[in-house]
Structures are given as C-alpha cells and as structure tokens.
Amino acid sequence: MTDSEPNTRPPLDGVRVVDFTWIVAGPTCTRLLGDLGAEVIRVENEQTLDSIRFGRPHPNGFDPPDSGAMFNWLDRNKRSITVNARHPDGLDLIKRLIRVSDVVVENYSSRILENWGLSYEEQRAENPQIIYVSLSGFGHSGPQRDYSTWGPTAQALSGLTAMSGLPEAPEPAGWGYSYLDHMAGFTAAAAITAALKHRRDTGQGQWIDLSQVETGMALTGSATLDFTVNGRRYRETGNPPGNRSVWPQAAPHNTYPTAGDDNWIMITCTSDAEWESFCEVSDHPHWRTDRRFATLPARLRHEDELDEQIGSWTAGQDGRALMQRLQAADVPAGVVQNGVDLVVSDPQMKAREWTVTRNHPVIGEHLTDGLQIHFSRTPAHRDRPGPRLGEANHYVFAELLGLSDERIAELQINGALG
Fold first, then answer.
1. CA-CA distances (angstroms) from residue 111 to 32, 267, 340?
2. In the chain, what's the furthest Cα-to-Cα distance?
3. What is each CA distance from 345 to 184, 352, 354, in whole angstroms?
4. pLDDT at 6
5. What percentage of the chain reaches a pLDDT higher than 90?
6. Which strands, in side-by-side order, build the sheet including 263-268?
7. Distance CA 266, CA 256 (A)
8. Per-residue model confidence (pLDDT) at position 267
9. Which residues neighbour 331 within 8 Å (Cβ) at sequence distance 6 or greater?
10. Dihedral of CA 67/69/71/74: which sign?
11. Which of 212, 245, 366, 381 can pair with 250 through a Cys bridge, CB separation 3.0 to 4.6 Å?
C-alpha cells in the first residue's frame, strides 16, 4: 500500500472507551481518542450533569443541555448514555459495559469511582484486560491524594504561575485559562496508546494514575534545573520576563502594535544576521550602526528604547503583510491572531483545512477545528458532533448489552437509567 492509497480505518478503530469524564481535562483526552477513531461512550446522569453542558456560548439563546458550544467542542465524536452508577442495576449495567470495552477514563477526585464500586480491582474482576485511566489533580497516592483542583490551581501548584506575569507586575499572574486541563488530557491520551500497545504485546491491562499537577511540572523545565544545579530560585534572577526572552537572549523579542484596532505582531531576532535583515526590511539601516542597537549586548541594555522605536514603526504597518515580508527575509515574526483570524483570515489554516463543517441537530451547521495531526495512511477524525444527552441509550443497552425494550423501560422507571 502506498501513501496515496490510505487505509479507510482510523488508527484507534475497534477500541471502545467508557468515558466518565467531565469539565475539560478528561473530555480533552477522550475527544482525542474519538478523533482517532475510538468508540467513546460517555456515561452521564441527568441528576448530576457536566456543568460544561450549561456553559456559554449557546447559539440562538440558552437551550441546554445539548446546545453548549464548549461542550460540543470538547465532546465531539462521542456517544452519550444516561445511567445512575449509584443504583445497583445501573452499576451492573456499567460493569457489563466494561466487560466489552477496552479503556475506562475518569477525572474525578481520587475516591469517587472507589465509592461507586468501580475501583481498579473491581474493574479487573469484570475485565482483566481493562486499561483504567484516573486523571486527578494530585494522583491516587501521597498525602494530598484527596485534595481537589481546577486547571488554574493545578497550574499554581505545578510552579507555572510563579513563572508567569509581566516585568512591571512582580506578583504571579497565571494565565486566566485552564491550559493544564488540556496538557493533562493530551498526556493521558498518549499514555493510553502506550498501554494499548503493551496490552497487544502482553495481553495485560493496567491502571494509569496521572496527576494533573505533575503534568504541569513537566513544563517548568529550565527553572527546575536552575534550582537543582545552581540552587537559584526563579524569581531571584528578576521579575518575570513577560514577552522578552531570558534564554537564549534575544532583542528585539516582543509584541508590537500594527495598524488597526488592537492588532499586534511578535518579532524575534536571535542573531545579528536576523537583526540586520530586520533593519533592511524596516528601512531603518541606521539602527545597525546606532551604538545602542548595533550588537546584541547593546540591544539588551537598551531594550526599552528599542521596543519603543520598533513599535512606533510597526504601528503604521499592516500586520499580515509585515509578517510575510519579515519571514521572506528569514526574520521570525507572527501576527497575534484571534479566533476570527484563525477561521477567516489565515491562509495557512485554510490550506491545512484546519476547520471542518459539522451539522448538529440543535446548533445547526457550524465550523469547528479538526484534528491537528495529519496521517498519510489513516483518516484522522470522524464527523460526529457532540452527543445529545442519552442519545445512545438504545444502541448501548439494546444492541451492545442485549437488553430487551421491556427491560430498558423497567430500568428507566426504577431510576437505574436517566
């Protein structure tokens, strides 16, 4: 088979995932698995719905639980069932589903599934080859295993908040968004693919115990190394650098205004050759001979003056055209894009087919991002929008588990389903 003759089966076709996730971190993991072709069955309960189902924005007004854009973005390529794990019959159905599945994923606090009767040992009793992923704030061991976190608190505990901020504001600032939720979700998805490979080779399932705080620590990199090697704390070297570069040292290295309302461009010169090219493009050849800017050490000493002069020039430039001119001269530069830019204005994203069109029964037809991974031999994602609540009940309980319509109706009446 050549790359021009792709396989019609996606990479994780045939893998079934029981999804107990909520909010962002867990759904990010299972979304990626679904994009890669796994059958993801989202276990929900009408009495304790994921709050993301009610989160904004809701097209054409407020119409939860199926209309939330954030939910549909995080939970595309999944099925939804409604079952009560705290009801004996509901728990029995979940165990039966685990028997015919490959992976269980959850991102609750550490003891939740244990309290339901779904600890790893209890899952193994149903399916010895099951791969169980618990994605909690602190992991399932250690003195803080029962603590709870959200993305920003995990970010603070991991050390990343201490590394953020602006030079003129010495207090830690954080990012204002749960990036660690996504980091943990991607890490969990990678771990699952490794566990699937291990099971294929050995026939053994396993428990993947992943700490969201620890996934953030992996991003502290040089700051941790600086302390372990040099005994130096991050903020002992000065206030946070903001947009400037500590290592490798570079100047200019900042965002600068461009023509229009709130338009910006990031420009970086890491070598004298890039700086000379920048001076050529900007039609400011005298900057190369100005004693304040002629060398990198001089530019670093006069960085405020440099940024002021560059910003005065870029303010009259069209940002996207300037980026193209600088890139053509081998100067790293990129416009600061917003959502409209990514979807409408960016020719690179259009060429890469970054967006795909989906049709949702409540939201209607809409554009959303596809999978950022391009496979030459296997299709990358299915075109299934986020699931309506409980829409897969009949498929799972009747077709997969073999229950009669009468039994399903009985379970709905006694509270096991719904």
1. 25, 48, 42
2. 86
3. 30, 13, 12
4. 60
5. 64
6. 253-258, 263-268, 333-335
7. 6
8. 97
9. 267, 268, 269, 274, 277, 278, 281
10. positive
11. 245
Sequence ranges of the domains in the chain:
16-217+355-414, 253-336
CB crowding 301-334: b at 16 or more within 10 Å, else e = ebbeebbebbbeebeebbbbebbeebeeeebbbb
* Buried/exposed 36-73: b ≥16 CB within 10 Å, e otherwise: bbbbbbbbbbeeebbebbeeeebeeeeebbbbbbbbbb
Q: Judge whether 181 counts as a catalytic residue.
A: yes
The two structure tokens encoding residue 339: 């959502």
pLDDT tens, position by position, 280-331: 999 999 999 999 999 999 999 999 999 999 999 999 999 999 999 999 999 9
CA dist list (Å): 80 to 19, 314, 382, 396, 413: 9, 50, 16, 9, 19
pLDDT at 2: 52
Tell me which residue has tokens 């050549």.
Answer: 2
Q: What are phi and psi of 65, to 5 degrees?
A: -95, 5
Rg of the Cα trace of the chain? 26
Contacts 24+ apart (CB under 8 A), 144-147: 145/110, 146/109, 146/110, 146/111
Residue among 35, 181, 201, 346 flagged as catalytic: 181
Superfamily of domain 253-336: formyl-coa transferase, domain 3 (3.30.1540.10)
| Alpha carbons 303 and 251: distance in angstroms, whole number | 7
How confident is the model over 174-195, as a mean pLDDT? 90
Retrieve residue 55's tokens.
């989160």
pTM higher than 0.85, yes or no?
yes
Residue with tokens 């969201």: 212
Residue 242 pLDDT level (bands cut at 50, 70, 90): confident
At the topology level, CATH places domain 16-217+355-414 in: Rossmann fold (3.40.50)
Residue pointed to by tokens 């088979």: 1
Pair 29, 185: CB distance under 8 Å: yes
* pLDDT number for residue 3: 55
Closest CA to 69 of 84, 82, 59, 78: 59
